[in-house]
């Protein structure tokens, strides 16, 4: 490989690793958001299941590893350190294999994941008390913003302990359909219906969630494919540069 090609490869690999470092920071940030977020659908799942917490720790770990790999990849590319380039290639290969494996497992276990999610939401609805709890307010926010009621439908709220044991005709306030006549609109808690038919949305939130996933499926798939292509490109560039470096020269490493 000519000197000019080596220089171009080196700086392309440097730019790639800079992007990889930034992507790692974004992944770690997303993992931290999942772990500490208190106002979204994630918060509902997180407090009811350890699976989401484990997933957030995995995201933080992968993001941190990606940032470290991006840093060492930049050093290895600029100063042409073969051991760092080889280590970078190996780690990138392992991450790519792990991503493909995770994707395959999620695809084949999608029915199990859907069932677990349904169980978590229905259990939360059953024990809903209307008090100032993070998961309850997060679920109220979802019902208000997605214009839905319950998980599969408004009938899920009939299993709520307080509603079942009350002599009043209660319903979830966040299910309130503003276009229907009824009592004053409230943000959370349980409200009393003035008629036999509560003024709530007729569709369940599972429909809204699935619609959102379908609408954004192309974006999600595009991001996954883009990341995989970048990883393959990084592996190719690192191997080309590693083969072109004849001898390791550790005197190029800056001293601090």
- Given as residue ranges, the uncertain stretches (5+ residues, pLDDT < 50) are 247-253
Number of helices: 9
Distance between the termini: 32 Å
How much helix is in the residues?
55-70%
Based on secondary structure, the structural category is: mainly alpha
Biggest sheet: strands side by side, in what order?
1-2
Strand content: under 5%
Strand and helix order: HHHHHHHEEHH
Shape: elongated
Number of beta strands = 2
Question: Whole-number radius of gyration?
Answer: 25 Å
Mean pLDDT: 78
Major sheet details: 2 strands, antiparallel
Give structural notes.
Helix content is 67%, strand content 2%. The chain has nine helices and two strands. It starts with a helix and ends in a 12-residue tail after the last helix. Helix 2 (41-48) crosses helix 3 and helix 2 (41-48) packs antiparallel against helix 6 (134-146). Belongs to the tetraspanin (TM4SF) family. The chain crosses the membrane at residues 12-36, 56-79, 86-108, 219-242. It comes from Characodon lateralis. This is Tetraspanin.
Kindly summarize this structure in a few lines.
The protein is mostly helical. Helices cover 67% and strands 2% of the residues.
Features:
elongated; mainly alpha; 2% strand; 256 residues; 9 helices; 67% helix; Tetraspanin/Peripherin; membrane; two-stranded antiparallel ribbon
């Amino acid at each position: 490989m000519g000197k000019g090609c080596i220089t171009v490869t080196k700086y392309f690999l440097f730019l790639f690793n800079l992007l990889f470092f930034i992507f790692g920071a974004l992944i770690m940030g997303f993992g931290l958001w999942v772990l500490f977020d208190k106002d979204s659908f994630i918060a509902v799942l997180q407090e009811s299941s350890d699976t989401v917490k484990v997933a957030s720790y995995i995201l933080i770990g992968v993001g941190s590893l990606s940032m470290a790999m991006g840093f060492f990849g930049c050093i290895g590319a600029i100063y042409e350190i073969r051991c760092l380039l080889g280590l970078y290639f190996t780690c990138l290969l392992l991450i790519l294999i792990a991503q493909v494996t995770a994707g395959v497992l999620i695809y084949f276990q999608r029915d199990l994941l859907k069932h677990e999610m349904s169980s978590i939401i229905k259990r939360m609805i059953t024990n809903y008390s209307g008090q100032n709890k993070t998961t309850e307010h997060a679920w109220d926010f979802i019902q208000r913003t997605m214009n839905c009621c319950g998980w599969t439908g408004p009938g899920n709220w009939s299993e709520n302990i307080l509603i079942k044991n009350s002599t009043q005709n209660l319903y979830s306030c966040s299910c309130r359909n503003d276009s229907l006549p009824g009592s004053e609109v409230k943000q959370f808690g349980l409200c009393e219906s003035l008629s036999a038919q509560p003024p709530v949305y007729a569709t369940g939130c599972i429909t809204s969630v699935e619609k959102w996933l379908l609408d954004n499926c192309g974006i999600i798939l595009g991001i996954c494919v883009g990341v995989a292509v970048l990883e393959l490109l990084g592996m190719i560039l690192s191997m080309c540069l590693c083969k072109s470096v004849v001898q390791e020269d550790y005197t190029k490493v800056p001293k601090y």
